[in-house]
Task: inverse folding
């Protein structure tokens, strides 16, 4: 297969290494807004560099992986599907709701496969949680608790264009909560706070957020996010059922320590970042994308799934701004 990669920042560089190791890929062509960086990464992984991102569309690609800046996502997705090229794109589909809807129109019209990069769907723990919840082994679920706690905030240049903590960070929790439960969110109540660096507040964002979601079967979910968790990268999910309760992300490397005198768990080195925590999941999702691109399977995380998680984030932003619960019906396009 001939695969193109647009964008080789932190996650894009990791994807380049992963893609080069997949035996189904004969040719990997890399492009970036910074042509010199594209050449550097291509040299490191044994790929070929294109001078410009637009040059990728002259390569007769079997698939395109998009890891460029968020504002480039909608244009690249549309250009690819209009050319008949299957797409893997990191979340979100687009920075705004209007652009997201436009992308979906093109995807539905062309029927070209598009897979959105919510890697938690490919993590072994979340897969096991989904099976346990949907099999009924836990009984009925009364409470879900999810958190995404970054070890450090992003650089000042990133925050103004990130879309905000709900759209950039908690959107992962919104997607995976919908996925493990198989249920839809009907209302949200969200708030945010700033206790850290001024540049986050100055950009109109929050370094810490809390959300209460209500699902269509009455299940409640508490979602926490923070840019300040110096001990390490902490992503967990708890599903509390009428019969049993389970946890995802509770292992020897969880950056959380018990103060109980006899406790010795966890004892490992905390995860320093998201790539270390989800390395295997990132590798699995790209391997699956090759099957999607070859039309062997349906996309496991569609652009419509990306829209659903984005709408929850939109409702959170409205709830925080207006200081009230928001029904999902209020943000439906």
Result:
């Amino acid at each position: 297969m001939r695969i193109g990669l647009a964008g080789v920042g932190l996650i894009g560089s990791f994807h380049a290494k992963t893609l080069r190791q997949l035996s189904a890929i004969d040719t990997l062509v890399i492009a970036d807004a910074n042509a010199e960086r594209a050449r550097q990464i291509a040299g490191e992984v044994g790929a070929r560099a294109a001078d410009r991102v637009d040059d990728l569309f002259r390569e007769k690609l079997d698939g395109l992986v998009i890891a460029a800046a968020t504002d480039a996502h909608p244009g690249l997705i549309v250009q690819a599907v209009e050319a008949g090229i299957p797409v893997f794109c990191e979340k979100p589909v687009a920075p705004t709701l209007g652009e997201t809807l436009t992308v979906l129109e093109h995807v539905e019209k062309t029927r070209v496969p598009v897979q959105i990069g919510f890697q938690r769907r490919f993590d072994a723990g979340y897969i096991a949680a989904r099976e346990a919840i949907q099999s009924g082994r836990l009984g009925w679920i009364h409470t879900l608790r999810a958190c995404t706690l970054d070890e450090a905030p992003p650089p000042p240049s990133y925050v103004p264009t990130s879309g905000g903590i709900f759209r950039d960070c908690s959107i992962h929790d919104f997607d995976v909560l919908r996925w493990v439960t198989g249920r839809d969110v009907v209302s949200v109540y969200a708030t945010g706070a700033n206790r850290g660096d001024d540049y986050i507040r100055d950009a109109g964002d929050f370094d810490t957020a809390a959300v209460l979601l209500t699902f269509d079967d009455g299940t409640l979910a508490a979602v926490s996010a923070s840019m300040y968790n110096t001990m390490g990268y902490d992503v967990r999910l708890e599903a509390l059922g009428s019969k049993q309760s389970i946890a995802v992300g509770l292992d020897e490397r969880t950056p959380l320590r018990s103060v109980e005198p006899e406790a010795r768990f966890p004892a490992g080195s905390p995860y320093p970042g998201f790539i270390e925590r989800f390395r295997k999941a990132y590798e699995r999702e790209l391997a699956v994308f090759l099957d999607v691109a070859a039309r062997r399977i349906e996309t496991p995380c569609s652009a419509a799934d990306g829209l659903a998680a984005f709408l929850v984030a939109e409702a959170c932003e409205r709830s925080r701004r207006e200081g009230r619960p928001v029904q999902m019906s209020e943000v439906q396009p």
